[in-house]
Amino acid sequence: MEDKVMEKVMEEVMKKLGKETEAPAAAAKKISSAGITEFVGTAIGDTLGLVIANIDHTLHSFMKLDPKYKSIGIVGARTGAGPHVMAADEAVKATNTEIISIELPRDTKGGAGHGCLILFGAEDVSDARRAVEVCLKELDRTFGDVYANGAGHIELQYTARASYACNKAFGAPIGKAFGLIVGAPAAIGVITADTAIKAANVDIVGYASPSTTSYSNEAILFISGDSGAVRQSILAAKDVGVKLLEVLGNEAAPSVTTPYI
What is the pTM of this model? Predict the structure, then answer.
């Protein structure tokens, strides 16, 4: 008798979960089919992807866009910056587009870091749309080495071959291995930066602290060099940074998705 009752309870629970899962999907379908032709999609980090096929010529002028780029792709997010820039870097490699601008507003819905606004320029709207699609798809991967809890976050990014997005946002040498190491709060970021540099022979591309990051509570290190050395530096920083974050928050700081480095 008890087994039958439990079976019935579990059946009702599964039905409820199924409805809750279907609701967001139905909402997304409604938005994408509501005549909003600019809509491309959404992704992790409260990220929105949009495209404008033929931007208004007056706005085009005020935005100081290259005259040849009539179409623009737009990726904006409330949470995240590094993951989006790395995803945009892959998008530029895969499409006939150019990074127009990358801005990192102080946001993250009350967190320690940034949101972002990234614009792709293209002569053809299909290229702009494709760039946005690639960027949105890549975010599940690039959020893999973001570790977070209530106390803050550790963000690590790596590419074996930096392209134009990394160059525009962070000054990364094009074609070389590049790494990004973020510690929030900034005190942890200082330690992870020092640990990373001591761990391997890499070049410092840049360093940012609250006064140079829209006053976000982060310290950030940008490194370049041999791919193996860059990766070794990042992993050493990860080990120290995650431990400190977990001690500070008195709770685990798991990966947001699945680690990729």
Answer: 0.85
